[in-house]
Amino acid sequence: MLNSNENGFSEIIRARIVCASKILAIKFYNMTRGPPIPKLLVSRLHCIRRGQMVLHDINMTLHDGGAMILTGPNGSGKTTFLRVLAGFIKPSAGYLLWNGHDVTKSSIYELYKLELHWMGLKDAIKNKLSVLDNVEFWETLERKSGKSCKALEFMGLGHVMKEPAQVLSVGQRKRLQLARLLAIPRPIWLLDEPSVGLDREGVKLLEYIMAEHRRKGGIVFVATHIPIKLEDAMNIQFPPRTPKSKTLIDLM
Ligand SMILES: Nc1ncnc2c1ncn2[C@@H]1O[C@H](COP(=O)(O)OP(=O)(O)OP(=O)(O)O)[C@@H](O)[C@H]1O
Ligand SMILES: [Mg+2]
User: Can you give the C-alpha Rg of the chain in angstroms?
Assistant: First the structure.
């Protein structure tokens, strides 16, 4: 039998052992946990099209809330890179990992593609449908409803919602595409020259919705020829693929 003193002493020892083992467990957890897995990781990515190396050794990581601006001259590979990220083109070499999973595997791609919004130069707008139907159609496909009107109003198209889409101007068509991004929430936005056709206020709206999207943890890729405000965005500058065009003096 232990007396009360010995009993108290063994309680203290036991408490200290428990405490020390908890600290060790936390330290071990922190050591083994490492940095969080990036949402998207591109490693040693190459892409050959028609025998030409279009993308050469691209490496990048992006976490939730991140943004990447793609710049470079015409034909340098910006759209190609976006198309690889969208899974429309398979890389010739290298990896594209989403949450650590290889996107080129079809089972993973089926899940990955549900995370994506693609906005290219072809606008996928049905001219005969109304402006509203052009957004609601996609919302219904996602089995959601209720955001299309608000999204169109936000993008300044409230007054033409009931009109057939064919009456829209170039910039208004772009605004309709942006309204789709708002109405159907998806975390990864792949935007190919989203500012083309937009007026100054439209560009401001674009910058605003991209910032808001990132604030909620979304990711944005933007290929652009004009400067776009995207705070703390990373940048891939694609080198020219064709010899620099000759100047007038060269030609004389
Ligand atoms: N469908 C295709 N098949 C084969 N090659 C293609 C195809 N589309 C583009 N390319 C080639 O890939 C290269 C990169 O084109 P890409 O469209 O990615 O350039 P970009 O940087 O987006 O140019 P831009 O600023 O003009 O939009 C170009 O040399 C182009 O000719
Ligand atoms: Mg392009």
Answer: 26
